[in-house]
Amino acid sequence: MHLFSECRFTRRIWADISTWLTKLSLQPTNWKQTASVHEWWSALAKTQGVPRKGLKSLVILVRWEVWLEHNARIFNRTEAPSFVVITKIRDEVSLWTMAGAMHLARLIGRV
């Protein structure tokens, strides 16, 4: 739970993504308090004004990149600043949309 929704680094990533997408409802300060990753995921998926399927794809992508960064810090003793992780996420979003992730494309405004 901590790594995906409570960690300061992860919350900074989500704040930047919220700004990038101009979806202030995705700001971590607007998240409801939850007891599990499943509750957090379910609550986030119900965010008003955000396409649900596109958001679920984005959550998977962000969680993956956060997990990769976590592993790099633990096993490789390297730390990427948040803007580098955001750049990786944006690059992956572009690749996913080019590969046909139409719901994600709608979320980011590339339809």
Question: What is the CA-based Rg, rounded?
Answer: 14 Å
Q: Helical content, roughly?
A: 55-70%
Low-confidence stretches: none
Termini gap: 33 Å
Tell me the domain tally.
1
State the shape: globular
Organism: Panicum hallii var. hallii
Protein name: Reverse transcriptase zinc-binding domain-containing protein
Q: Can you walk through the features of this model?
A:
α4 (about 50-75) packs across α5 (about 80-100) and α5 (about 80-100) packs across α6. The longest helix has 25 residues, at about 50-75. It is globular, with a radius of gyration of 14 Å. The protein is mostly helical. It has one domain (about 1-110). About 70% of the residues lie in helices and about 0% in strands.
In short:
This protein has about 110 residues and is mostly helical. It has 6 helices and no strands.
Give the SSE layout.
Elements lengths: L1 H5 L1 H14 L15 H9 L6 H25 L5 H17 L3 H7 L3
Helix pairs in contact: 2-5, 4-5, 4-6, 5-6
List keywords for this structure.
globular; 111 residues; Reverse transcriptase zinc-binding domain-containing protein; mainly alpha
